[in-house]
């Protein structure tokens, strides 16, 4: 037998630490999503608390978006090359350091820099999914990956009400001390319970590719996120989009010629991978509109005729059922993928998202209907998000799983940024004065729902176009050739 061949332990074997691998990684994913949402309840008060303008304060969200988009594929590639557990701990460590900085200061420049550090947490989910592929037997892998994918929605649903309660009843710095403690706990648990994957992608890290991707994504996402504020036809936004096209075109040329590229574009354009990335972008767009619009809709003044005038705490509680549903349904989505294939699960999830928006269009005045519609969208998101990494795992080599999943998460991030910009554009153009201030009309919200539902249907069509034999997970068999590093701790037996 080849000495690089690993034989897995039988299912259920291992220490308590090994059995806690999945819960610990899921905790990290939930923590990442919580960190991305906790700042939202603070945004209306931050200009007063920091002495900065509302435009400057918005960079606390924009900076996290930009750094997360750039660092997700970069840290995924680093994980494939230098160790996924090591890079996962680094990402959680950067997130924790950013939270500590936020807890220590009220200076807006330091707060923005700290939130930039926290953006590294966006790489937690793809890195964790890759660890699960390396460490779990096939019969456990599907449900674990589905749970890991669902942590994005679970954490977002938990983070908003948690942050709102802390902000309402305690000093706002307390919120960041709480997240700092949670982050430190996450790093400690990963170090204790998660084994370092023995798989490595050899070669030198692609520094030029990293810089090129960073420059291109910053130009693209900065233009998308600030287009509504600066004006879509303004010189700054047009220049950013032109620079993004030029830089990313040059970056693609460099990647195709690099010996060890940051992103394997030849692999990315294969139908099984490329269409999964397209579906991820569309699903991210469709999912994010639900959170954005629901929060604004239920907080709208009652004088609008449709608004409920709810507080931010009550708004967070309205989204809580969505998080609970995502937690409970992740095993179900894994079973559907096992029985029918992940592309069918993805298509079904996207169709359910569209059905959820149909409910929102039918009635967005009654609170129970709003919660029902938002929960149906969450059900569809659970199915779709759980299927995406499974499609990637089946279509790429084992030593490229972290980087490939990182690109898939990046596409979701771009979709969410596009959704935010598109929803804002729709609502800005459909307003009416209430109390002397322009407030979005119900018609504007319904148009946003229709737009997101249509995108979800396009995502379902893209999913059905993914080849049914897009590839098998190369780790499914009992004996798989692996690239191992000396001294890697894996608990597996090597054949003689």
Characteristics:
5 strands; 3% strand; disordered N terminus; two-stranded antiparallel sheet; disordered C terminus; 496 residues; mainly alpha; three-stranded antiparallel beta sheet; 73% helix; single chain
Question: Could you characterize the architecture of this molecule?
Answer:
- The chain has helices spanning 16-19, 21-37, 46-50, 54-57, 59-82, 84-104, 108-118, 124-135, 138-169, 172-193, 207-230, 235-257, 265-268, 271-299, 312-340, 342-362, 367-395, 401-428, 442-465; strands spanning 5-7, 431-434, 437-440, 479-481, 493-494.
- The protein is mainly α and 496 residues long.
- It has a three-stranded antiparallel β-sheet with strand order 4-1-5, with no helix packed on it. The chain has a two-stranded antiparallel ribbon with strand order 2-3.
- Strand 2 and strand 3 form a beta hairpin.
- Helix 9 crosses helix 17 and helix 18 packs antiparallel against helix 19.
- It is globular, with a radius of gyration of 22 Å.
Kindly state the percentage of residues in helix.
over 70%
Assembly category = single chain
Distance between the termini: 6 Å
Shape: globular
Q: What's the SSE pattern?
A: EHHHHHHHHHHHHHHHHHHEEHEE
Main sheet record: 3 strands, antiparallel
Beta-strand percentage? under 5%
Unreliable stretches (pLDDT < 50, length at least 5) are: 1-13, 469-496
Number of helices: 19
What structural class do helix, strand and pairing data support?
mainly alpha
Cα Rg: 22 Å
């Amino acid at each position: 037998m080849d000495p690089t061949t690993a034989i897995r332990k039988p299912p259920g074997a291992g220490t308590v630490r090994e059995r806690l691998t999945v819960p610990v990684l899921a905790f990290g994913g939930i923590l990442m999503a919580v960190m991305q949402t906790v700042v939202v309840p603070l945004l209306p008060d931050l200009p007063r608390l920091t002495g900065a303008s509302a435009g400057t304060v918005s960079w606390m969200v924009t900076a996290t978006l930009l750094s997360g988009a750039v660092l997700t594929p970069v840290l995924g590639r680093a994980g494939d090359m230098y160790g996924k557990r090591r890079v996962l701990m680094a990402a959680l460590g950067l997130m924790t350091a950013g939270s500590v900085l936020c807890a220590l200061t009220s200076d807006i420049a330091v707060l923005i820099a700290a939130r930039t550090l926290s953006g590294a947490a966006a790489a937690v989910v793809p890195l964790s999914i890759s660890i699960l592929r390396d460490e779990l037997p096939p019969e456990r892998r599907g449900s674990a990956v589905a749970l890991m994918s669902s942590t994005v929605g679970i954490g977002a649903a938990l983070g908003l009400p948690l942050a709102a309660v802390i902000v309402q009843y305690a000093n706002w710095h307390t919120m960041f001390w709480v997240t700092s403690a949670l982050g430190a706990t996450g790093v400690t648990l990963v170090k204790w319970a998660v084994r370092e994957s023995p798989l490595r992608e050899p070669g030198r890290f692609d520094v030029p590719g990293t810089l090129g991707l960073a420059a291109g994504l910053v130009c693209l996402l900065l233009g998308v996120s600030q287009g509504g504020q600066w004006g879509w036809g303004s010189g700054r936004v047009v220049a950013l989009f032109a620079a993004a096209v030029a830089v990313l075109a040059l970056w693609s040329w460099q990647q195709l010629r690099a010996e060890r590229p940051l992103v394997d574009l030849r692999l990315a354009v294969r139908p099984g991978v490329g269409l999964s990335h397209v579906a991820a972008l569309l699903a991210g767009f469709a999912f994010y509109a639900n959170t954005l619009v629901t929060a604004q809709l239920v907080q709208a003044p009652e004088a609008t005729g449709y608004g409920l005038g709810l507080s931010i705490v009550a708004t967070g509680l309205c989204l809580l059922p969505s998080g609970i549903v995502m937690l409970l349904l992740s095993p179900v989505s894994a079973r559907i993928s096992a029985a029918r294939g992940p592309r069918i699960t993805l298509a079904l999830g996207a169709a359910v998202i569209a059905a959820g928006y149909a409910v929102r269009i039918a009635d967005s005045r009654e609170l129970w209907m709003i919660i029902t519609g938002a929960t149906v969208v969450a059900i569809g998101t659970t199915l779709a998000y759980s299927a995406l990494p499974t499609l990637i795992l089946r279509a790429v080599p084992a030593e490229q799983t972290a980087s490939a999943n990182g690109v898939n998460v990046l596409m979701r991030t771009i979709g969410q940024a596009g959704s935010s910009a598109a929803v804002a554009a729709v609502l800005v153009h459909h307003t009416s004065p209430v109390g002397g201030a322009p407030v979005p009309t119900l018609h504007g919200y319904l148009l946003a729902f229709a737009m997101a539902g249509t995108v979800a249907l396009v995502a379902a069509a893209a999913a059905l176009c993914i080849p049914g034999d897009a590839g098998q997970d190369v780790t499914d068999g009992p004996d798989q050739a692996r690239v191992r590093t000396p001294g890697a701790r894996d608990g597996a037996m090597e054949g003689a």
